[in-house]
Amino acid sequence: MKLIKPFLKWPGGKRWFVEKHSTLFPTNYNTYIEPFLGSGSVFFFLQPTRAILSDINKELINTFIGVRDNYSEVVKQLQEYQTEHSIEFYYNTRAALSTNNVDDAAKFIYLNRTCFNGIYRVNNNGVFNVPKGTSDSVFRKEDDFKNWSRILSTAQLNVSDFEVTINEAMAGDLIFADPPYTVRHNLNGFREYNEKLFSWDDQVRLSEALVRARDRGAHIVSTNANHQSVRELYENRGLSLLTTSRFSSISANPTNRRQFDELVILSSEHFLL
Question: Strand 219-225's sheet: what is its strand order?
């Protein structure tokens, strides 16, 4: 299977995770379900035949729909953006309103590739406000919009709360959940931004939804902040907890780990390292 990288750069993206720990995912499952889509690194890595993909970010989901349904028009518009690209054009495009999924997709991809460090951030009014970055290239040599469209062709894309999406999982389905990382008492260093996206109450709600899905027979692979308050949500509930990071191997031992390590939550103890 050809390795397909996502077309977006996303904060906290899991491209490194699937490349390093692909054996944590079952090889046989029914529907793949991802309630926090982001760049879709795991989805594009697994290339499932059936998928339910969702996020609360409407512009993000519209971007995926645009690539799925009209990738050639998206590419055409990106080519125009490349020709017009400048500091003034960046800020004019950032401020412009989109009128359809193609516009949404082209604008979103253009801003993602030319903004500062690929960051996605909005102001209190929900408006994207990241300044222009140093990259002036709208296209990348690994771009494969036709293949991205093909892989997305059988995926259901929804703007949805994560719990609604997880509740659709049945026996034999695979859920991959990678929420924004927040911890109890806001001690994780991302307090101001992440707490607005995903509160501690959301963390509790997520843990309960995943346990219910596990009880229905779904496979669970979830990543989260490696913090004791998060671990307590899943301990003693029949789930396996591991830790990993970009810079170290995966481990079941949480001691002597660095603060940037991540928690991995699995529904089964039968995994390969």
Answer: 155-159, 51-55, 32-34, 174-177, 219-225, 262-266, 240-245, 248-251
pLDDT in tens, 169-181: 999 999 999 998 8
* Count of C-beta atoms within a 10 Å radius of residue 32: 23
Going along the chain from its start, the domains and CATH numbers come out as 15-56+160-266 (3.40.50.150), 60-144 (1.10.1020.10)
**CB count, 10 Å around CB of 158?**
18
Instruction: Report DSSP state, residue 132.
Output: B
Least Cα distance to 8 among 142, 132, 100 occurs for 142
| Cα torsion through 211, 212, 216, 222, rounded to 10 | -40
Q: Which of 198, 188, 168, 241 is nearest to 36 (CA)?
A: 198
pTM over 0.85: yes
Mean pLDDT of 80-105: 96
Residue 240 bridge partners (DSSP)? 266
DSSP for 145-162 reads: HHHHHHHHTTEEEEE--H
